[in-house]
Amino acid sequence: MLKQPLRSAELIDEDALRTEIAAIVAGRDPAAFRPDLVACLRRTRQAALKRAEDILLEEGRGIACAERLAYVQDVIIRVLADVAVRHVNRMGNPSKAERVALVAVGGYGRGTLAPGSDVDLLFILAYKQTPWTETVVEFVLYALWDLGLKVGHATRTVDECIRLSRGDMTIRTAILEARFLWGSEDMFADLERRFDKEVVDGTASEFVAAKLAERDERHRRQGRSRYLVEPNVKDGKGGLRDLHTLFWIAQYVYRVRERADFVERGVFSKSELTLFRKAEDFLWAVRCHMHFVTGRPEERLSFDIQREIALRLGYVSHPGLKDVERFMKHYFLVAKDVGDLTLIFCNALEAEQVKKTPRLNRFLGAIRRAPRTALPDGGAFVVEHDRINVADDGVFARDPVNLIRLFDVAARRGLAFHPDAMRLARRSLKLVDATLRENPEANKLFVDILTSRREPEIVLRRMNEVGLLGRFVPDFGRVVAMMQFNMYHHYTVDEHLLRCIGVLWDLERGERKDEHPLVTEIIGSVQSRRTLYIALFLHDIAKGRPEDHSIAGARIARRLGPRFGLTPAETETVAWLVEHHLVMSMVAQSRDLSDPKTIADFAALVQSPERLKMLLILTVCDIKAVGPGVWNGWKAQLLRTLYYEAEPLIAGGHTRRTRAEEVKHAKAELSAALYDWDPAELAAYMERHFPPYWLRVDLPTKIAHAGLVREADRLESRLATAVETRARHDITIITVLAPDHPRLLSVIAGACTVAGANIVDAQIFTTTDGLALDSIAISREFPAEDDEMRRAGRITDLIERALIGTEALPERIARKVAAKPGPKPFTVETEVIVDNSSSDRFTVVEVSGLDRPGLLYDITRTLSNLALNIASAHIATFGERVVDVFYVNDLTEQKITSASGQQAIRRQLRQVFDRTAAEMKAEETKVETRRERRPSDAAA
């Protein structure tokens, strides 16, 4: 029998409750006293929950809170069952059939309960159900439902329990955790005795395999990494359910009933058992706080509640790390501990199984009975069951370099790790000191591991799991389990860095050639593989410090380069790549790549073709390892364009034509493509565009534009739209031909806001006859071409209606903003930069801050109010943070050079970001008021 939960008179006084209940039911019919009974229990339970929350805030003990809540539930159920047999269906001389045992199962059976957890009950009957037992069961269940509890229940005989548990692993697990609550203890004892004898005996391998397969499937659903920044505390990898799985298996295989039995059975050491208890207590504290904060059984530790949970647990900010980031770092360290305990447990389980059977379960693998084979690498290691193991327990103490050598040998020979070796490595981390860190052989071995051609990510991950990676490279240790409190980064910093190495290895092997043709083409020509791998390993290593992590990271790279055996030139290249690892991504996504000044400035920074190649490869790996869905074809196209534009300048391959020559060449190129046009019509069309158009638009787009304008002329229309899907780039291009107007881009942005379309880029051109030709790139939503075209058609229809005045955009946008507010948990500092040095012809306005629905509409409307022409717009979103860049000039096509003009831009754009939720709500109210008045206005 599992232990009873913590008895706590602090939360509920059972005797006082029974006295109050007795007064309620005395001399009354069940139908009459039932509402008062439920009301009394509801008050009692709510008071107990409030007191449990207060105690949890005071002492912080999660398991104690869960046990107290389970005890409260025990009292309520026992009281209800007693009322049922004494006052609802009283029987003076019950027969053997009129017996029932009420049993807690599931998590409740373990004697722990979160505030919003389900209450899982099993009613054990002696024989088939009788009217008396049916009344008892129904009364208890209906009363619990009236209390607002979600109750999982089953009513079975002992025979049915045994039969069903043989064929259903969920039922088997529930009975494994069964705990007596009320009724016939003899029937419960009979169930336990028969369950052990008729179900458990001889089926350990079957149960272990099923539970671990179930765990794997749960991890697959939740996300295989334990380092997701919004983890599921209950079911995610490294969460409570993983600990429960270990306990289930221990109960089944070792017949343990308490956690202390782990040590007695040799599963864990005392220190490992302490780690188990600490991890469980922390996760229970987090889970209980989550339920209290949200008022529901919330298991996902989302951004919305992370900071409040951090404050409840007492975390405070430190330089470089917010309170919530310190809390989440602790969470991920605990999740890592859970993973370590899993490996240790499976090692003990394997030893137990080897004694009993020649074949292990699926998780542990089919292990052939083979002798230990010594490896020639100094005699320190052996191969045991196809896995590398230590020759003896003194291997690391005799030569600490063996800690690194273990992983190098595994990498070179493609061997998996024996749990004994991992356990000894974890216990030997104290040997990693300054002497080992500066040891030339140890550092050479580490660099060999990092640059291995045999999946270096896997070996580095094992080094990180045992804690060796962070001890050997302390700067890496500082980012282990570090999360960044934003919506852009999906993983902790160390997980991101290891995934980057995995992406680089894939690219180097050519496995992503179709997705990354340019990188695949150039990666083999990189002169120093180790420079690239080390730069990627270090690029985010200074995250969480008060200063810019790129600059601090470059300083770390200069310190670690010589230690890793790099030459001075290689060290400087690594430092440069770390310092500028964000530049190529930012230039590609937020600058006009058709502006020669953009390309010239980027080329001047990079300077060498080798740096350009490595920076491109690093940028691709960095973006792809951020998280699912972050990389897309549009970003790939932007990076390729920047590379191809900058490479000739850096390499000095040719001299550019003059601006006039470029325009002349572009016109000739289009003329050749439009060979079937009437010469006079073609000549007239050529005069409709200003020089910037000819310089910034590629030939296929020019041809499409010519067709759109020609068709509009034929229809004598000054408004036309066209759609082009680019599946490879994950974007759809919407082209709008309309009379030029300062608010044109704002109207288009507003229509996209209403339609839920995400604009990523915009090019705006005017013609000599007063028309505007705007091309808007929006993120693709549907994989199927037909679906995406229908969606784009709806957006273009909305744009056209807005432009001709039949669609009231401001009202619809206000409702959209009110219905879908921005990401509340985050704060992003607003920054507005007015830059006249980045372009020869335009003022570059860069705005960054907290994203929200309708923001681009408000920004473009504000720029229009300032009498600014927008030549191009480049929209980049990094989670909750938006970076929008606009190339603008005034109505005379000049840059904004006056201090007052620049200050006005900064002030008014800041006001756009500073709009409060109250202001948006007020705007929504005005819209609703106008809408309510409209029918009467129309009638008038």
3D structure, described in words:
The structure is a single chain. The chain has 940 residues and is an alpha+beta fold. It has 4 domains: 14-201, Beta Polymerase, domain 2, CATH 3.30.460.10; 206-356, Four Helix Bundle (Hemerythrin (Met), subunit A); 373-584 and 613-621, cca-adding enzyme, domain 2 (Orthogonal Bundle), CATH 1.10.3090.10; 721-921, no CATH class. The chain contains 41 helices and 16 strands. The strands form 3 sheets. The chain has an 8-stranded antiparallel sheet with strand order 9-10-12-11-15-16-14-13, with helices on both faces. α2 runs antiparallel to α3 (62-88) and α36 (744-755) runs antiparallel to α39. It is globular, with a radius of gyration of 34 Å. The termini are far apart. Mean pLDDT is 86; it is low at 354-370 and 930-940. GO terms for molecular function: [protein-PII] uridylyltransferase activity; phosphoric diester hydrolase activity. Residues 920-940 are annotated as: Disordered. Belongs to the GlnD family. Its EC number is 2.7.7.59, 3.1.4.-. It comes from Segnochrobactrum spirostomi.
Structure described in brief:
With 940 residues, the protein is an alpha+beta fold. The protein contains 41 helices and 16 strands.
Quickly list its features.
Four Helix Bundle (Hemerythrin (Met), subunit A); multifunctional enzyme; alpha+beta; HD_domain; disordered C terminus; 11% strand; globular; magnesium; HD/PDEase_dom; 41 helices; cca-adding enzyme, domain 2; single chain; 8-stranded antiparallel β-sheet; EC 2.7.7.59
